[in-house]
Amino acid sequence: MLRIDNLRASVEDKEILKGLSLEVKPGEVHAIMGPNGAGKSTLGNVLSGRAGYEVNSGTVEFNGKNLFDFEVEERAREGLFLAFQYPVEIPGVSNMEFLKVSVDAVRKHRGLPELSSVEFMKLARATSQKVKLDQAFLKRGVNEGFSGGEKKRNEILQMMLLEPSLCILDETDSGLDIDALQTVAEGVNAMRSEDRSFIVVTHYQRLLDYIVPDYVHVLSDGKIVKSGDKSLAKELEAKGYGWLESGEV
Ligand code: ADP
Ligand code: MG
Ligand code: MG
């Protein structure tokens, strides 16, 4: 599914990712934890091809292809989904229109017929209900004036509609109330399948009580410094990250 090998990447000429390697197989859920500024969001941004992030060396294979051969918009069509820590607002473009255009592009790429407006509206409404987002949010501008929790629900809505093969969720639990957190977790859990994988970036062990990962990794200073199973998250909660940085790995 995803194979990252010795990835080095910079932002504004400062190297942030310093030889990161990670392999995610189909059906797996990987959690990435780590101190602030370690490079967790940078990893998501580099994978999504966000402007300003420069890859210096290393490789990323996605479904057997070089991810960096794909333009940013192509990555989504290829099945990569990124839920950002700070989702963008697009005032003036209704959420429904935005979702339909995204879903149309993905379906076309997969050789599926385009959904009619009516079919899409039905699907979008039913899916909004699943993520407990009031249908009124489909008519509003994309994320315009949405609260943190509503933005997250909207992201899960997008994710469910796009049916990606790899979903990367960044700090989904930051500033979320427990209800929104559970909705996100339920959304992820409902979408778990043997051919879909997840990378969940989180500061808090709490989220991993709801989304139980197959693997937990600690990202520190641009590298994965420790990997384990879900018990590692508990250990981190109890001990913090200091013991890893001081070299007692
Ligand atoms: P994390 O998500 O683990 O908290 P980030 O990936 O956001 O860490 O940040 C890693 C480092 O990269 C930080 O020192 C941060 O200041 C820097 N950084 C990230 N994005 C930018 C940017 N757009 N411009 C300048 N510095 C950045
Ligand atoms: Mg951060
Ligand atoms: Mg971050």
From TrEMBL:
Signal peptide: none annotated. SUPFAM superfamilies: P-loop containing nucleoside triphosphate hydrolases. Residues 2-246 form the ABC transporter domain. It comes from the Bacteria. The keyword Nucleotide-binding applies. Pfam families: ABC_tran. Keywords: ATP-binding, Nucleotide-binding. Belongs to the ABC transporter superfamily. Ycf16 family. This is Fe-S cluster assembly ATPase SufC. The lineage of its organism: Bacteria, Pseudomonadati, Pseudomonadota, Gammaproteobacteria, Cellvibrionales. The gene is sufC.
